[in-house]
Amino acid sequence: MNFDFSDDQKQLGREARRFLADRSSSAAVRAILEGPEPFDRALWAGLGEMGFLGAAIPEEYGGLGAGYLELCVIAEELGRALAPVPTSSSIYLAAEFLLAAGSEGQKQAWLPKLASGEAIGTFAFAEIPGKVTPRTITATVTGGRLSGTKSPVPDGDVADIAIVAARTGSGAGEQAIGLFLVDLSGPGVTRDAVDSIDPTRSQARIVFDGASVEPLGIDGWATIANVLDRAAVLIAFEQVGGSDRALEMARDYALERFAFGRQIGSFQAVKHMLADMYVSATLARSNAYYGAWALSTGSAELPQAAATARVSATQSFQHCAKNNIQVHGGMGFTWAFDCHLFYRRSNGLALGLGSQSTWEDLLIERMRGRNAPAAA
Question: What pLDDT sits at residue 271?
């Protein structure tokens, strides 16, 4: 079995890297971090024009119809460049919910706009700190109107539409949770940006007060689990890209920085630090490739593969981002160096789909479920 990408897919990755090197330099990332704009609008439009956003969206809905493997290689390059754009919210989540559960009318109305970058989507899920369960969701839809508060909502301050998880009945179980499409420009919607560790990827608090909704599919909780698994694989590739770039930064600095007449990369402590980073980044890539295979083939192993990729890639990016600061020493802690950009993004992505402990619990649960029949 070949787990590597094809030559065409690798070429697509190289094209994306060249495009992002020109459009998403560290100076461009800093312009969003330090400026008033919540994301890089020019870069977002360019990604749409290049077809990168619509890589996995079928052609009949305005996308390229290439597939998930192509989207994975693009996601890795977005992660390397720390691209300050709402790709994960709009493409990995909102577009995937529409593909998984949207009606034909909803797909025709919104997927072409998401693929081109004309519109931005998001997923409004959490309401309180901690793990999201059916019991923690209190936002309610009654008579086609949604009331409740969602926070934090990734890119919720700039999104045009949101897929919202809300309660449809009085029960406490999964069957009481439905999915709804909300036009965030309509009446009954109030939103405010909230502070986060990574301002290049904004977060918002959205209050719904009788907002009009459209139902999305019929099995809300199962759809949520499936789409989060898909998104976990794609975000894992962003984390792999960030891990590799942080490792490269640390290596390059270790080779050019001299102390006591020697390259600091010749010191045993620095060598060990770089070696540990390489091991964690390589393991994360291996697990991400497993997730890409499961995602692209529709394998029944996707839940386990997604959790594995998510846990491994989160650990890797946080490890490499932290050690990159350590290798840079006192300079690594300063605003002038780019190390903190990777540290911010690593921690932001670590929480984007639920905490590390949540995914570790899911991985254990899924591995037990897989092994149970064999044990029986």
Answer: 95
Q: What tokens were used for 68?
A: 């998930």
- 99 lies in the same domain as 126: no
Section 147-154 average pLDDT: 97
CB 254 within 8 A of CB 119: no
pLDDT in tens, 327-365: 999 889 999 999 999 999 999 999 999 999 999 999 999
Handedness of CA 284, 285, 289, 290 (dihedral sign): negative
* Burial of residue 215 (number of CB atoms within 10 Å: 0-12, 13-18, 19+): middle
Nearest one of 254, 232, 226 to 311, comparing CA atoms: 232
| Cβ atoms 164, 150 nearer than 8 A | yes
AA letter at 321:
A
Find all residues with CB under 8 Å of 323, minimum gap 6, and list them.
246, 250, 273, 274, 276, 277
Q: Which of 1-10, 49-58, 85-94, 112-121 has the lowest mean pLDDT?
A: 1-10
| Residue 326 predicted with pLDDT over 70 | yes
d(CA 269, CA 279): 16
Cα–Cα distance measured from residue 234 to residue 94, given in angstroms and rounded to the nearest whole number:
13
Tell me how far apart the 2 most distant CA atoms of the chain are, in Å.
74
pLDDT at 170: 67
Distance CA 184, CA 202 (A): 16
Same domain, 256 and 314: yes
Q: Provide the residue range defining the domain that includes 361.
A: 225-375
Task: Please give the tally of structural domains in the chain.
Answer: 3
Give yes or no for a cis peptide into 152 (omega within 30° of 0): yes
| % the chain with pLDDT above 90 | 91
Please indicate, yes or no, whether residues 93 and 41 belong to a single structural domain of this protein.
yes
- Percentage of the chain modeled with pLDDT above 70: 98
Contact between 95 and 115 (Cβ < 8 Å): yes
Whether 373 shows a pLDDT value over 70: the answer reads no
SS3 118: coil
Please check whether residue 195 lies inside any domain of the structure.
yes
Show the tokens assigned to 206: 């959205």
Token pair 């990755």 in the structure block, residue: 13
CB 211 within 8 A of CB 223: no
Q: Under a CB-based contact definition with an 8 Å cutoff, are residues 250 and 327 in contact?
A: yes
